[in-house]
Amino acid sequence: MRHEGVVLHGTCAATPPAQTPPGPRVMTASSYAPPSAVNHVFTVDVEEYFQVNAFDGVIARSDWDAQRSRVAFGVDHLLDLLARHGVTGTFFVLGWIADRQPAVVRRIADAGHEVASHGWSHRRVTTLTRQGLHAELRDSKRLLEDVSGQQVLGFRAPSFSITPGFEWAFDVLLEEGYRYDSSLFAVRRPGYGYPGVSEYPHAIERPAGSIFELPLATVTWCGLRLPAAGGGYFRHFPYAFTRRAFRELTRRGIPGTFYIHPWELDPDQPRLRVPAATRMRHYGGLRHTSLRLSRLLSQFRFTSASRLLESMVSGPGEEPVARLPGTVPA
Asked: Would you say residue 22 lies in a domain?
């Protein structure tokens, strides 16, 4: 495996045969779109650099307001980049951000992008009670809709924290009026991941109804399912890694979901005193993120989550349904 645009060599680089997603009434790849027409999903998790969960032990939540804000800089950089490439995306915004910087949310909406919820306080779903998640979803949705003038349809859990055993979160989402989620990562990793979930966009049946899921993109290498959807993986892994994942998804006619944070395009953000491993993970690769992102946007087609789902619902094929472990069919 080599860096920057060089193919992955060796037997491990061979792409395994396409697998049929699990669950009844699933959509096959041919039900989506021909490769020439595949639109992947471009998403942004709008949060401050100091709100990442890796900094929980460094900056207390009570000290967040005392930190220097940089989110507007990163969002504006992303808006300019997307405009240059003619891409419309989905911005999952924290209620905490919208409450303090509503102008940032309005700029996102005015540029034609979708505004969705990242919760209110960036707390993992695994740390919340059912009542607590209701409050996070209700309060963020109400404020984001008021500020953006849009209906908020989607949610992404901080740190992809809807994990096995927390499927009840989908019921709470439905009860609060959300139509889709994008929190599941089909990987096994400390802190998050939902191994075995379908890589296809699909619907999940719950007692409260049916909700669409847009899982994050992955790639299979040496028999392992690895993250390839963006974020730190985009900054630290060779660009060829992400490109391979989206090339394979495109070839199979499957929309993949990519994500990025505004602070990942901000190499001049304040440096916090954190352990060496955390420092490397958070600050590594910041100076080349913008160039890599421009390259990705020029090589693949992207759209917003809501536009993709609208095309899926109105297009051919049967609605896919997946029953996750631990769920109860409606």
From this structure: no
